[in-house]
Design goal:
Layout (H helix, E strand, L loop, with lengths): L6 H15 L13 H9 L1 H9 L2
Length: 55
């Protein structure tokens, strides 16, 4: 959009999206999962434990 002279429109979209992300929520967000849990799911438990111990 910015390449076609629509800077104002592009900025308005970005501002609206940012406002939505930062608005008050009715419910609290769920607790975040620890990174180890994500890596276990991706790499397998043994791979993560081996790499983690070598540090």
């Amino acid at each position: 959009m910015a390449e076609h002279g629509q800077d104002d429109e592009a900025s308005a979209i970005i501002c609206a999206a940012t406002a939505r992300l930062h608005q008050a929520r009715k419910h609290q967000l769920p607790e975040l999962l620890p990174l180890a849990q994500w890596f276990n799911a991706i790499l397998g438990r043994r791979v993560f434990e081996r790499r983690h111990r070598s540090r």
